[in-house]
Amino acid sequence: MQSRSATTKRYAGPPSLPRFGSLATILRQIPAGGDVLDVGCAEGYLAAHLPGNRVWGLDGNPTAIARARVFCAEAAIVDLNDLPATPLFRREFGTVVLADVLEHLVDPEATLRHFKEYIGKSGRVIVSLPNVALWRCRLNLLFGRFDYQDYGVLDRTHLHLYTFKTALELLRAAGYRPLRVQGAANLLGPVAAHVQPLRNLASIHIIITAAP
Q: Torsion angle, CA of 159/172/99/22, rounded to 10 degrees?
């Protein structure tokens, strides 16, 4: 039987996930068999879709962490706006994921810098951010509407808004070298993924894979 560490096939995502949605897009960037740190893991949804990997999780919600421990090798409660000086997990990871997290934090650049020390040699960070340049946001702004909502790009808990340009600037300012930039969306996902001139308009999420 082939061991997990010897497996090189990338995760394609189960049929229930939209193929061009943010989660499936992130999962395809994670090599099977490697150790993963999910920052802002919530209830361990990412780990549940990575049965061939060991996943460690961090989140500030104790109830969510209790549920995440079902899927994670280890999960810890942490305030991402007040990170400890020393690493919570004394190990390195092949992949560190910050999916829909940084826009909620006071200082996203400092957070990205903090997690560089968790990334192993040849490791990667995968960041997902909401795209405020989405066609729907532009159309609403054209008619004088910029209303925050309970979820989505203009979630009322978002402290920062990003375009593809400013998302790349954030990663570079934190000392990362972007390797791959992708757009993701459920409905217009194929356009976001394959039609480069329309990516800014069609993408709900900006997904960047980068090296420290």
A: 110
